[in-house]
Amino acid sequence: MRKLKQKNIYYLALFLVFISSLIGLGSWGLTETSESRYAQISKEMLQSDNYLQPKLLGINHLHKPPFTYYITTIGYKIFGVNEFGARFFLQVALLIQLILVFKIADLFFKNRRMALNTMLIYFSLPLVLISVRNLTTDAYLNTFILGSIYYWLKFTNRQEIKLYLYLFFVFLGLIMNTKGPVGLVFPILLILTQKQVLRIKFKISYHFILAFLLFLVISLFWMGLLYKEIPSLFNYFLDEQILKRIGTKSYNRTKPFWYFLVIFPIIIIPWFFIVFRGLKLNFLKGDEKAIKLFSLNILIILLLFSSFTTKLILYILPISLFVSLLCAKVLSISEEYFLKKYNLYLISLLGLILITISILPILDAKFSINYFKLLLIIIFCGVLILGTYKFIRFKTVKTTAISSIFGLGILLLSTLFFSNNNIQINSVKTILDYINNTPELKNKTIVVYDYLLPSASLYSGKDIVTINNGHNTTERDTRFEKENNWRKFIINAKSEDGIKRMDSIFKSDIILFSRKKHELPEKFRNYQNELPNKLDFDKWILYY
After folding, report:
1. What is the value of pTM for the model shown?
2. Is 442 exposed, middle or buried (0-12, 13-18, 19+ CB in 10 A)?
3. CB 274 within 8 A of CB 327
4. Is 181 found in the same domain as 313?
5. CA-CA distance, 390 to 387, in Å (whole number)?
6. How far apart are CA 515 and CA 103, in angstroms?
7. Cα–Cα distance for residue pair 455/35, rounded to 1 Å
8. Range of 67's domain?
9. Residues linked to residue 31 through DSSP beta bridges, in sequence order
10. How far lies 70's CA from each of 35, 179, 493, in Å?
11. Mind listing the pLDDT tens digit for each residue in 181-219?
């Protein structure tokens, strides 16, 4: 039987990943609050043709540089303002990441088989898959971080080619335009550990200075264009979006120190035991420089981001590169019997997830699943696993290929699960579809009580009114507003003026969105009585 060549496995993997990532990409609604926020900002940017000042529900939203919004608006221009358009370039970013991971691993290992293994491992990490199924900055940021690392390694391998140095700094500039300085931590950390462990030397020449100046121009370009209109923007970024996120309990994202240490094994679950083995080897076998380099980066990233006050899973997304490199290295020195056992572990893990998804609707009637499509996914994964055993002869590639089938399975299962459970994944698309298709409701003004709901505006195509009664999402930063038009769409329930406006708006033709777990308090129940009709959508109750 003819076996697959490494090159064919590489192209087949990229093809299957990209096609699988596009299947059903627009079949579930935008999720609250992050994804719908990015999607709505991009929609407003496209409609207003104002690409300098991102706005969310008519209010300046300058929390991050605008690069993610630019990419999303391109998706909208090509595919329309919809979920597929919002998420399409995330899948392109995943494809680029896989290619970059392969090239980075090839530079480290000088071995195409190990590079292929690294790429397949990378794709199988749940942390990576999470980042490309939900519109945020993180997948794009990670792509630019990988690009910067790749060109830095190219430069240190061939220092006479200065173009690589300039491209390294260009990618650093793109990092700055995506999420600001925090993204620079990862390439800088690699440079420092690489210098310490591998004793890499490089000279600071005038090319360094010119490339650094190019980085500054790219990094500050957006802020420079806005300086005349918003001169305090730089200080705002430094104080509010960097220092406060690191050291204070801002944006309701405070987690205990141990958060990443506990969550880390889960978000790399197919490879946790290999990572643990690699970290153990680092301490027992200190002469293995590659293992030491990758282990150092993993440990420092975990400890550094654990020390920050605000924490989200995707903050440590770039750790995925070092996890993949470490695992590929450990696999290359593993015994055959260990690889066979690990193959069974990966297959069992996928089987366990498939069983869990299939019985979830039985355990909890809130969830639903399309069992025919689930059967197709099981058959697809089964055929690929059988093909792996039959057509791949390299032992380590067989293991990593099975892990990539795990990744494909998770990708397709997530699409199936999300599309069948919109409300459970915190999307209001089902609710807005119902409103838009009900003549009695579609022309009513949407009022949302104590929660920011950008997708209500995106799906209805109308301005919505938000009642702010203290929930963190409704606290809008209006310091950069020069006009008062935004006041029409936010009601402060704790002010006298706000109470007067509530008296008025509840007597008009509205539909009130209220979360079940945070309904109107007793003192506002008289307003609710103005709306005698009620619709129950599990997490949400609608009054009209």
Report:
1. 0.94
2. middle
3. yes
4. yes
5. 5
6. 48
7. 9
8. 12-333
9. 427
10. 15, 13, 35
11. 899 999 999 999 998 888 887 778 889 999 999 999 999
